């Protein structure tokens, strides 16, 4: 389980790395649990002032949950995953320490849901962003439908969530989706620069600032919990299962079989 997510602390910076490059760093239920444990460890470690979340390799930050592992999941398995994701988001939003998303490639689906819960995002020029929910019988109710409109505006958020298009890092930066975009070979230097800057700041002031900025969106936590429960029930329907199965089989889903002549 530990190999799926790597954790290390160096010079006050905790690095949490999704380590499944062969699956574009998509995470399993065990991976979600391990991420939550890592964020909890970082939160309780007084030597840690900043957390960096990233993925192994230069192809992907994270492409979401591993649908291949859940193609036959039951509503109980799905609820277990969503319950773990809620615990993970609680740790991320309440850790009291800045979290930087180091986006080194695809940031898609639940990968972008992770990104949205980080405080800051620095992306490589070759990175790409997007949601996949309606395309595969799901909805990004894990803080994206709640937070994305605050970053890019409601109309643009609807476009991103409804159409499931891909966006370049430069486009994402223009929208306010990410903070900074740099050439791939400068990504580590840019992240390290911001880490050093944050480590020079008052940790208590940063904790209070994070709490204060989160206060408004914290009011949406009930909507997130409800949304995750609703999506659990939706995932148990034939429509949603068709989307997930089509994704596994790499074909176009047929969501409206009754509309054929």
From TrEMBL:
Domain of life: Bacteria
Organism: Blastococcus aggregatus
SUPFAM superfamilies tied to this protein: ClpP/crotonase
MF GO annotations: 1,4-dihydroxy-2-naphthoyl-CoA synthase activity
Family annotation (PROSITE patterns): ENOYL_COA_HYDRATASE
InterPro entries membership: ClpP/crotonase-like_dom_sf, Enoyl-CoA_hyd/isom_CS, Enoyl-CoA_hydra/iso, Enoyl-CoA_hydra_C
Pfam family, one: ECH_1
Name under which the protein is recorded: 1,4-Dihydroxy-2-naphthoyl-CoA synthase
Alphabetized CDD domains for the sequence: crotonase-like
Family from the record: Belongs to the enoyl-CoA hydratase/isomerase family.
